[in-house]
Each structure stands twice: as structure tokens, then as C-alpha cells.
Amino acid sequence: MIGAVLVVYKPDLPLVERLLTRLYGQTEEVVIVDNSPTPHDFSKIITHYHYIHLSSNSGIASAHNAGLIYLLEAGCEYAILLDQDSLIPSDMVFNLSSLLKASNKMKQNVVAIGPRIRCSFSDKKVNPKVQKEVFEYDELVGVTQIIASGMMIDLSALDEIGLKDESLFIDGVDHEWCWRARSMGFDIAKAKNIEMIHRLGDSRSKFVGITYKVGAPIRLYYQFRNILLLSRRAYVPNYWKVRCLFFMPIRFFLNSVMQKNRRKRFGFMLKGIYDGLIGRKGPYDKHWK
After folding, report:
1. Whole-number pLDDT of residue 136
2. Whether 39 contacts 13, CB under 8 Å
3. Which of 59, 197, 284, 287 could make an S-S bridge to 87, C-beta 3.0–4.6 Å?
């Protein structure tokens, strides 16, 4: 049995409807985890679903974990994680689960598999410039990490790997789980021929001909803090540590000089760096009022 976990925050209902229309009939269970302050009713979009309202917004990791625990208790073998910024093919769940089941029969240790991503901003496939493919087998390519949306997980492995790291709150949560799984001998893979459209970031900006992602100011706090937190962990890939730490001053400059809300962004980045250096974890509101 396969279940889906859809995490929303102050949901854009047309986007949610578009996704759930594509998801309809692909899974036996659908869990909608809502991190919004006020609850939402999705019964006009979907009739059979389980709703979890986390009004305090305890983060994406906490929302994923709540959904995954529900699916485990419901008897699901696999779970697919989604967010409202994704548009999935009408056969994606079946195709991903088929590949995951086939890999297990072939005694491959693949614990999570995701589609190739096409960015909705550029309408281009997202091809990592630094991340190298670990292995290639028929329709699968082994990678070091995949994003959360579109990630299908073999739930039987959670006993050994564990759930998502709630102390990170949001940024880096999906990658950290993949790296942790790989450090325990599991494999993470992408499907060569399955594609999903996904929005990465809120908008795009250019500087000296280079296009970069722009997100909400508060996200800068988590991005800068979590880079410093994750860089201390031995199982996190060195290429990621070097790249993120190298580009941190550049990102600091771009967000404090080249964007709107410069003062606000500057403050969030400084707080993120401070908390990352002293090892503070969890939600921003826990440490800053």
C-alpha cells in the first residue's frame, strides 16, 4: 500500500487542487499536513484524506514526520512526499513504486527514489553541476541526495535510518536525511525517465549574468544557520560543505545589497550565522522574538 504526504503552509488552493487532481487514484492514503495558523478544508478538492493541523508551524521535518508516522500506522509500505509547488504526472507514483520494488528484488539497497526535476521558472531540467552520479542501473541513477517533493520512501527502512531531523526546521532537511541514509549503507536514486515540474524558490534575480534563487527573508536565517550546523557532521559530503561555505559571503552580499527588504534580510542572515556558530537548533521564534 502506498500513501502520500502533502505538506502545506498558507496554501495556494488552486495549486493544491491542481496537485491533488493529478494525485487522485495514485495512492491508497493521502495525508495533508497543514502548518498554517488557521485550519483549511480540502473536502471540495478531495473526499478521502487524513488531515493533520500543526498550527504552531513546527517546520517541514515535523510535518513530514507526522505524515510518515500516520502512514506507517495505516500499514503503508511506501510513502511519497509532496508540496503544493509540484506538478506530478498522472502515473508518477506507480512508476516510482515499480522502480523501487524492482530495485529491492534485485537486492539493491535503494531506500528512496525521486523524479528528475524541471524548474517551473526556467522550464529547464535541473542538472546539478557538482553532485556526481554514484551508480547507473537500467532506469535508475544513484545520487547523493534528492529534494523532498516527489521523494518516495521505503517505510521499512525508517526503523534503522530514523525520521527527518526536526532540529533543522526546514532548509537542508531532505538532503540531511539522504546523507544519513547513505552513511548507513542505503542508496538514494533518481528515475531516468520520470519528470516532475517543481518551483524552486519564490523568484529569480540576476547579477553579472548569473541567475540565482530568491526566497523569503526568513528562509535566509535557516539557510545560513543550517549550513553551519550541517558542516560539522561527518556524513555530510565534503563537496557540499566547501560549495556552501565558499558561496556564503557572496549570498550575504547579494541578499543584503541587491534585494528588496535589505535590512530585514541582513538581520536574518546575521542571526542565522550567529545561531549556526553557537549550535542553536529548532525554530527561529524559539531564540528570537
Report:
1. 83
2. no
3. 197
